[in-house]
Amino acid sequence: MVDQVGVEHSIIKKQGNPYGTMTFSRFDYIEKPTMVDYLRSGWKISLSVAIDFTASNGELSEPSSLHYIDPNNPAKMTQYEQAIYNIGNILEPYDSDRNFPVFGFGAKPRFCGIEQVSHCFPLNGQENPEVEGVQGILEAYRNAMYGGIGLYGPTNFTPCLQAMANFIKDRVSLCEYNIMLYITDGAITDMDETIEEIVKASHLPMSIIIVGVGTANFSRMEDLDSDGQMLRDKYGNCASRDIVQFVQFNNYSSDVSYLHEDVLREVPGQLVRYMANNGIAPNPVAHAQY
């Protein structure tokens, strides 16, 4: 195309008659940045986790429960632990400090002295919800289970999403892109409110990965993963970009080799779109001096 600079081109109508001429005065080649470019230039990935403890997961004492811990084989992972372990180990290497805020929702967290239903509580029972690494998530999960937790409901996503969005707003200047991982067993109760919060969150440096465990109908979750069109809330507000990826964990129960690809399929593009929407270019990479 460069050799066409300065060359006059005729514009022809459909009927074959000349319509005018056009001349290219210059060509600019603009290389689109990638997620790797941003990470190399100082941007960091930060992971947070929200785990579903609603009653729809099944009575804790029943083997059919997704949170069931077998007393005869306590080392065997629950279905939630399997999801935490497999998904967490995919995302952990991208987090710069590997300290993850971890929340539970839809339960009475008696292990931290609360008898009321909470839709967003720190899984470690501490004021600071951060734990260290995937192993820290698994330990906090087991400690909560053994410490006493009452599965309840309903399945509300909004409180944890609002808490994380407020946290991100206070850290926008820190060059962090946040991935919020929801692990849940089925359809959410506060769909309209969740869509509204996702639309708002589309303007923040964050993506949401929803992992479905169990065999429930996840069609509404797939609605949140609005591939092909932007999510719109009940007030007509449209998301500035797609920030949700849904993965049904049971689809990989026999072979997790494709899990890595599917979990991260949309995040790089979502990150780059956020940067483009906000006019953020990768910082120049400093070269070592010898």
Give a written overview of the molecule.
This is VWFA domain-containing protein. With 290 residues, this protein is α/β, with parallel strands linked by helices. It has a single domain, classed as von Willebrand factor, type A domain (Rossmann fold, 3-Layer(aba) Sandwich). Helix content is 27%, strand content 20%. The chain contains eight helices and eleven strands. Strands 3, 4, 6, 7, 9, 10 and 11 form a seven-stranded mixed β-sheet that branches. A two-stranded antiparallel sheet has the order 1-2. Helix 5 (191-201) links the parallel strand 9 and strand 10 (206-212). Helix 2 packs antiparallel against helix 3 and helix 4 (158-169) packs parallel to helix 5. The radius of gyration is 23 Å and the shape is elongated. The chain starts with 7 loop residues before the first strand and ends in a 13-residue tail after the last helix. The mean pLDDT is 89.
